[in-house]
């Protein structure tokens, strides 16, 4: 359907009278780990004075593989953001009631005082923290709180219905999400990270949750290589003939060096030779550029402009990895940009924006929008679950989804922990319009890109 010929203001607050190319269905989920629930509290009492039912407003989901490699969506697309009602609160899990959610009873043992914010929330990150959870510096600020990770994993399990599936966790880190996925009876996990020390910590952490080693394999590799070269439509293709000499050259140039295989707490940790023949879904929880992501304002983080994922720079040996990751969580090794940023004198907003991701080689990276396209092409189901900054611009998500081949609608789930927005996860590859059943449009932002 064609948008109206002329609009003075490309952003409008009322429901447009035509179907947008893509609807980003924003869906609030309340989770609690504080021993208190607000079940029944509805934060979005949408006004019912709009007659237009959402079902006729949202296009149904479909997927059209892009003709060639990633290219930005056509300029005429319209993206609409639709806010759904809040669903009833998830029931509180008793394991969290054992601890105060913010626990100041044990002094922060880390030398960098800035880790304090995360240290006091340690039982929120891992309910079994006291059994010996291991985190490195990046892990402290980027691991998904367990309650949220479990919820996201349960969403994927629901998508798979009764089938057994394999999910590729492309940025495993210290394992929070991989563990949550592997807890689900029907999900096995391929956990990928460039950093073997992180993978060892993740394996250790998985053992504390008694995850069977048959459900979780750790691969040391840059996830971009796996998405670009190892899987197409869900099938392992690295051993298949390559269409053109140019593509073969590109693949050879990117091929990671062989890495050693080891057993860590009973889990296999090794290289791409351990990849399975098939994957069903991709989970993306990439680095967003550090804690300064909030510098772009409440809805200003643009996936294409602001996220940068580095391709492999050069082959690293295991020794390099070990030497470069003196990651005792103290923030005192001088190598981590996150802690460096705390230590430097405060910079003004403009400087901080200019500095954001400045350490990434622009000629050898993909952006957060291209990442969706790579993950979508690697899966057969097109199931891509993507943890994005909570200030991610909804239009940038919709445009990225369109460019990757998605049509109709995507879901953006806002996770509120004890009433406060903590994380946001996008779900792509299914039809979410039923979320809006019995809901009239109360507020939409429509933007012509
Ligand atoms: P936060 O915004 O740093 O903390 O991270 P908080 O306490 O909500 O912020 P405050 O300053 O507003 O009080 C919130 C959550 O976002 C973390 O628990 C992580 O799950 C996730 N997260 C934060 N960062 C900086 C990253 C990141 O770079 N990458 C990923 N994947 N997740 C992150």
Low-pLDDT parts are 1-13, 36-51, 315-343
Q: What is the terminal-to-terminal distance?
A: 16 Å
Enumerate the distinct ligands: 7-methyl-guanosine-5'-triphosphate
Largest sheet: 13 strands, mixed
- This entry's quaternary arrangement is single chain
Task: State the total count of DSSP E strands.
Answer: 17
Q: If you average the pLDDT, what whole number results?
A: 80
Q: Can you give the helix content as a percent range?
A: 25-40%
Number of helices: 14
Q: Name the beta content range.
A: 15-25%
How large, in whole angstroms, is the Cα Rg?
22 Å
Q: Describe the global form.
A: globular
Structural class, from secondary structure content? alpha/beta
Topology:
Elements: E1 22-31, E2 62-63, E3 78-83, H1 116-119, H2 122-125, H3 137-142, H4 146-160, E4 165-169, H5 176-183, E5 187-193, H6 196-208, E6 216-220, H7 223-230, E7 231-232, E8 235-236, H8 245-254, E9 262-264, E10 267-270, E11 281-284, H9 303-306, E12 308-310, H10 318-324, H11 337-343, H12 349-355, E13 365-367, H13 368-378, E14 383-388, H14 394-404, E15 406-417, E16 420-428, E17 444-448
Parallel strand pairs: 1-3, 1-15, 4-5, 4-11, 5-6, 6-10, 11-14
Antiparallel strand pairs: 2-15, 3-17, 7-8, 9-10, 12-13, 14-16, 15-16
The chain binds 7-methyl-guanosine-5'-triphosphate (MGP).
Structural description of this entry:
The strands form three sheets. Strands 1, 2, 3, 4, 5, 6, 9, 10, 11, 14, 15, 16 and 17 form a 13-stranded mixed beta sheet that branches. Strands 7-8 form a two-stranded antiparallel sheet. Strands 12-13 form a two-stranded antiparallel sheet. 26% of the residues lie in helices and 20% in strands. The protein has 14 helices and 17 strands. It is globular and about 55 Å long. The protein is α/β, with parallel strands linked by helices. Helix 7 packs across helix 13. A hairpin with a 2-residue loop joins strand 15 and strand 16. It has helices at residues 116-119, 122-125, 137-142, 146-160, 176-183, 196-208, 223-230, 245-254, 303-306, 318-324, 337-343, 349-355, 368-378, 394-404, and strands at residues 22-31, 62-63, 78-83, 165-169, 187-193, 216-220, 231-232, 235-236, 262-264, 267-270, 281-284, 308-310, 365-367, 383-388, 406-417, 420-428, 444-448. The structure holds 7-methyl-guanosine-5'-triphosphate. 7-methyl-guanosine-5'-triphosphate (MGP) binds next to helix 3 and strand 16. The site of 7-methyl-guanosine-5'-triphosphate has 15 residues, from helix 3 and strand 16.
